[in-house]
Amino acid sequence: MKSEQVEGVAEKLAGKAQSTVGKLIGDSKMEAEGAGHQAAGQLTKTYGDTLNSVSTFVKEKPVAALAIGAAALILINRIFRR
């Protein structure tokens, strides 16, 4: 598990707690901030999941990963040459 995944889950849980406390005490600003933290946590976790998937793919299929990287570089080079 990547550190980004752990950070994302922790931030999402903290946001959920903040949102719940805001709802309980009737503080809509706190509730909205909690929802924002939940969304940020989900994004961070998704980023970690993506890193994990890419890392696994590169370990399992290094030649395919190298070919994809080379193709991406050629495409980027052609786009920026114009």
Beginning-to-end CA distance, first to last residue: 41 Å
Q: Pairing-aware structural class of the strands and helices?
A: mainly alpha
Please state the oligomeric state of the protein chains shown: single chain
State the helicity in percent bands. Answer: over 70%
Major beta sheet summary: none
Query: What's the count of strands?
Result: 0
- C-alpha geometry: elongated
Q: How many structural domains are formed by the residues?
A: 1
- Number of helical runs? 3
Our Rg estimate from Cα atoms comes to: 19 Å
What letter string, H or E per element, gives the SSE order?
HHH
Mean residue pLDDT: 95
Protein name: CsbD-like domain-containing protein
Family: Belongs to the UPF0337 (CsbD) family.
Organism: Pseudomonas syringae pv. antirrhini
Keywords: Membrane, Transmembrane, Transmembrane helix
Descriptive notes:
This is CsbD-like domain-containing protein. The chain crosses the membrane at residues 63-80. This protein has three helices and no strands. The model has no long low-confidence stretch (mean pLDDT 95). It has one domain. With 82 residues, it is mainly alpha-helical. The chain has helices spanning 3-25, 28-60, 62-81. The protein is elongated, with a radius of gyration of 19 Å.
